[in-house]
Amino acid sequence: MDTRLTLAAVLLVGVAGIAAPLAAPAAAQSEPAVGFGDARTTVAQGDVATIDLQLRNADRATLQINAASLPYRATLRVHDGDGDGTVQVRANTFHGEGVDGDERFTAAGDADEARLLAEANPPEGAVLDTGRYNLIVSTAETSVAAVLAVEEPTASSSNATVVAPDASLNPEAGDSETTAGSSGDASADDGTSETDAADPLSAARSDQVRTAFAVSGIGGILESPAPANNLVFPANSAPSAQTVHTIETAPDEDVSVRSVTIDYGIDDAVPPRTVHQFTRSDIEAIGIDETGDGYIDRSVGIAIQNTRTSTDGRMTITFDRSVTIASNQTFRLAYAMENPEVTGPQAVSVALDGERTTHHERGTVLYGPAGQGTLGYGVDLRLTTADGEGPTAPLAAVETAYDIDNGGLVAMIDTDALATEEYAVELTVGEAAPEPVPRVSLREPFTVVEPTAEFTNRSVGDDEQLSVTADTNLAPEGSVIIRVEADESGGGISQVLNCVATVESDGAVGCEFDLSRSASDFDIEVSIQRDGSVIAGPTEYN
User: Fold this and answer.
1) From start to end residue, where is composition biased (Acidic residues) (predicted)?
2) Which of 336, 375, 439, 462 is the most exposed place for a label (fewest CB within 10 A)?
3) pTM
4) Nearest alpha carbon to residue 309 among 269, 272, 273, 275
């Protein structure tokens, strides 16, 4: 949008009436002025509204958000810190427990600022009520009005596509893709859907699977860090719940571990109720994730020597031998535990005590509604195998983003970390979510296969140019290296030529090689590589 707009004075009729703007005379161009990028901004309950403010000859202004038919009022002070004449205010309509004003009202730009000055009559529920909210941006000299419309959230469908390794999370970023035969539809009465398994999506290892779930109203929840990525994640975060706690920690250098200590009692935190009763039989999984897919690749349960606990919230697991954890690996532990009678974040620490070095990490465990589900407040996203079994860490191989205009909740799956197997990405919105958000269960299955390529022409003529083409099962816009080794028949010239080829929309790749003399004079072998691994060849071409 052109920020060099002609800002205007407007007449405010009553509290919410807005008159058409009057063009400012040329003499007034040097006076401070403010405006909105859009006369009307629409957002779903629970999502984050972006209010585009424009300032001329001013770097500070006041923004008021006043409900037209309700007593809600909010006043913000904004600052254009980079002097570009714009401030994008992000207003989170989710008012969940533990989300304060500084978190709900922010500026999109790093240099800009949006600070809540006052808020009156906040909503009784977890989200702003639907309806019209009058927006007024002002300085001492001028003021302009616009409208924020808050609507009920919706849920429609889901889909999955295969994209190149360096593709963006944003579905509209211009990436080409391979799409499943049909998309899940969440419009059924039970809110459950699944892509048609008759046309399964296949992804070559090292490509990415991008799934999009068109569910609005959860954007505000996703502004907070995902509970599943905390140092300790309880499968059920309800106070006093009997559940499973999962730990993940990655040392920044190689460690030979002889014991693991979890301390729930740091910084006056409230420890779990039964931490002092922890025994070896409570451990459900313990070991090393060597690939980053969330699954334990090397179990160390057999090396457990004993467990020790204390009444102040500490529990220690000792090993009868050294357990080596490399700097690019993750230690994972899952065990039965009873949550404390507390809501909100609690401090926790994990120490991997080695023979010479110790890895120590401090973090958080989150109890109550905010910690329910992998993404919080009843929103649960996870990667599972076809039989429904999930990894110890459900989001280890998953990257997420939320933009309702570009697909809703988007999850990118790193297949390079996965085995060649059938998987599914599942999104469930449960009862802990804000009341207006639709309760849905969406599932997108896919299969990870090895990357392959097949040469489509192996003819060699008398021309100096050698054309190599192949069909692959790779996602469009990815790349491969086509390698030609040409040795002159009877000895003489030897050539090794490499070409980086981009995968076309139909999976085809191709390169032209200049051999400097007739191709028929050479013994030629051709191969195709992806990420250092040969996926086709070496194949003789004559």
Assistant:
1) 187-197
2) 462
3) 0.85
4) 275
